[in-house]
Amino acid sequence: MVKNVILTNRGGTMQNVTNQEIMNEDFKMVQQNVSQFQEGFKLSKSGFDTTMPGHTTSQPQNMILRQEPRTVRSEGSGISLNADVRLEMGLMLDDHLCSLNVALHQYTKHHWLTEGAESFLSLHHLLDEHIDVTQNHIDKVGERVARLGVVPTAHPVTQHEISYIKHEVEGRYTMRDFLRNDLEHELKIQLMLRKTIERAHELKDFGTVQVLEEVLLKREDLGYHLWSVLEDDSLVRGMNHLLDRNDDISRSRPLNPKLQ
Length: 260
What we know:
- The protein is mainly α.
- The chain has a domain at 24-34 and 79-232: Ferritin, core subunit, four-helix bundle (Ferritin), CATH 1.20.1260.
- Helices cover 53% and strands 4% of the residues.
- It has a two-stranded antiparallel ribbon with strand order 1-2.
- The longest helix has 30 residues, at 83-112.
- It is globular, with a radius of gyration of 24 Å.
- The two termini are 35 Å apart.
């Protein structure tokens, strides 16, 4: 149901708007992008691929290869699931691993570039927490990939290629742009985690279920943090009152008569 809301502008006149009209443009953009998100898991990307970044090098390699990337150990890994199940689960988890690394890189950039009254301290610390949580999730997921007998992807260029989310374009943007991009990442990660959890139930890989359910719950917390700081209400009014020369300064503005 759409409700009418009464707002008062600076001139004191009243106007009717709807909930839909005051919905934050950032949320609209995120919801639209997430609704169009159709990425799947790259289950066919297994073994060396000459077209995959990070799989080839012009430098001499004096190393003994024991297992190709994103392949499974057929003889087992101490987990009583057959090789086909362990490979499918391992590849799905590796896609999550790559995506979490992309999210980590973007969070780190935003942590470095925080500025402004609400950002430099509060958001700086908030993003620091998101970085710590994401690093922990990367380790949990990477460990599970290895325990399933699959070689996890570690090359940063390859990670970005496999990831189902992509890093924003280089450069400094507004803090709202940063956080909106991070929120979009979190919602997409949640969607993909649920798909893997559902598939893991079907394959009776309950170890992976437990790992990812813990990760999903915390990613939902991170998404809630970002959604909350992007909400419309704020204690900081910005700098317009210094630039528009309308004397709109708290000490000079008359109080609402109803509050006196």
